[in-house]
# Entry
Amino acid sequence: MNLMNGIKGNRFAVFGRAGMDMFADPVGVKSEDAVTFRADLGGSSANICAGLVKLGSASALVTSVSDDAVGRFCLNRLKDYGVDTAYIRSVGGEARTSLAVYESCIENFQNVIYRNGAADFQVTEDDMDAVDYSAFSALITAGTVFASEPSRSATFRAFENARKAGLPVIFDIDYRPYSWPSPQVASDVLSRAGAESDLIVGNDEEFGFMAGGIERGLDKARELAAEGRMVVYKMGQEGAITLVDGQEIRTGIYPVTAVKPNGAGDSFLAGFLASLASGHHLGDAVLRGSACASITVSKPGCAGAMPTTAELEAFLASHPGPSE
# Structure
């Protein structure tokens, strides 16, 4: 199955972490000054899953969570959003589900993440072999899964299994330095993951990191695309460049008043893939992904801030843009 057919199959197995988000309430209050926090689902891969389902796609999360109240909270919220949790294993011992504490403000934004002994790093090759790959049309992974063992080897096993099942691999670089033992290890492993993927999505800093310098990031993206992959090279306020089949498609963004910076990348990927799956042309799908990102940063939270199809269409109908 080629990449576009896999995306249009609209059934995604997503590998990576789920976590709990706690964000200060109301908007504008700093975490250290907050009296009230709201809680919801978080974690990049879980956010992607929720975003996909809200836009009409089917998604299943493959991960581990801690066998405690926080892990069960994440499972319950995933189910509430309509995400398939059949491939999530609860693990005991000292492993803990990730916790992110942040606020809804842009100036001096703080996102304090607790990932010591992260439960999602405990997925194994056996977990990956237990997935029914025939039930899906494409595999998605965020780069965080490669930061530690056993999840690193396990996810590369999932890549092998997906290839055998004929599924394309979609890779969101999602480089988080705090998760990795060293930049060199991260560069080597993420480069390997990129080489084994059919679609790679990342920002200019992430591609620059893989290339050894941000000034070489676009060259790295072009190199990967020249080898037959689709690459989406995101540039923040300057929009994105989508590289495929020798083309470079430049698209802008939808300006909004943001209340926080996080969640944009997860929402972009969900919107981009769901739009391709529903028949939109490539450039339009990138713009719809950008609109999803703008909607998400304009609201508190992450998974809960991601738009439904109706909300996305209403935004596109009423919002000027995109920027060039």
